[in-house]
Amino acid sequence: MDIEYKAFDSKPGLYSYINEQLQKITEETKDITAVLANASALLMMELKTVNWAGFYLYKNGRLILGPFQGKPAVAEIAVGAGVCGTAAETLEVQIVEDVHSCCNHIACDIATNSEIVVPILLADGTLYGVIDIDSPVPARFDSEDADGLSRAAEIISNAVKS
Ligand code: SME
């Protein structure tokens, strides 16, 4: 598909662009695996200083690895375990500035220093999965990332429904 390449000087501007592209991705197919595969590629391509971008999907009470870009990762995460499991338990965005000082982080890539995990909720409020993004840069993620990725999670949620 056509993905435009552009430069942005603000994070909200970048996320606005990313989410426009994500919306187009969801309109190309009803197959959610295809949507998530392209979404992970889009996030990895557009977000700078990121070494892992992808999804864990909530199935049978656990988070199961979904489409992603980056090194091979842990395949299953219990709710409450690690940063992803904490997001799944609390249904709230988790931002970890330093994964090495975080007591509840599951290491997948030694290069990772910071992480953001955003829950994807369905219209009825139930958990569909999480967006997980890792960076080698300490404190790489902030509230602007949380806002932009929360919008991405909404777009994906809408694609699951349709
Ligand atoms: N670090 C995550 C596990 C998944 S990897 O980052 C891809 C966590 O603590 O939940």
Report on this structure.
With 162 residues, the protein is α+β, with helices and mostly antiparallel strands. 38% of the residues lie in helices and 25% in strands. The protein has helices spanning 11-28, 32-46, 82-90, 143-161, and strands at 52-59, 62-70, 76-78, 94-96, 114-121, 127-135. Strands 3-2-1-6-5-4 form a 6-stranded antiparallel beta sheet, sandwiched between helices. Helix 1 runs antiparallel to helix 2 (32-46) and helix 1 runs parallel beside helix 4. The radius of gyration is 15 Å and the shape is globular. The mean pLDDT is 93. It binds methionine sulfoxide. Residues 52, 73-74, 77, 82-85, 105-106, 108, 115, 132, 134 line the site of methionine sulfoxide. Methionine sulfoxide (SME) binds at residues 52, 73-74, 77, 82-85, 105-106, 108, 115, 132, 134.
Overall mean pLDDT score? 93
Q: List how many beta strands DSSP finds.
A: 6
Q: Choose one word for the global shape.
A: globular
Largest sheet: 6 strands, antiparallel
Distance between the termini: 20 Å
User: Which sequence of strands runs across the widest sheet?
Assistant: 3-2-1-6-5-4
Radius of gyration, CA atoms, in whole angstroms? 15 Å
Proportion in helices: 25-40%
Which molecules other than protein and nucleic acid are bound? methionine sulfoxide
Specify the oligomeric state: single chain
Question: β content, as a range?
Answer: 15-25%
Order of helices and strands: HHEEEHEEEH
Total helices: the number is 4
Class based on secondary structure composition and strand pairing: alpha+beta
Give the low-confidence spans.
none
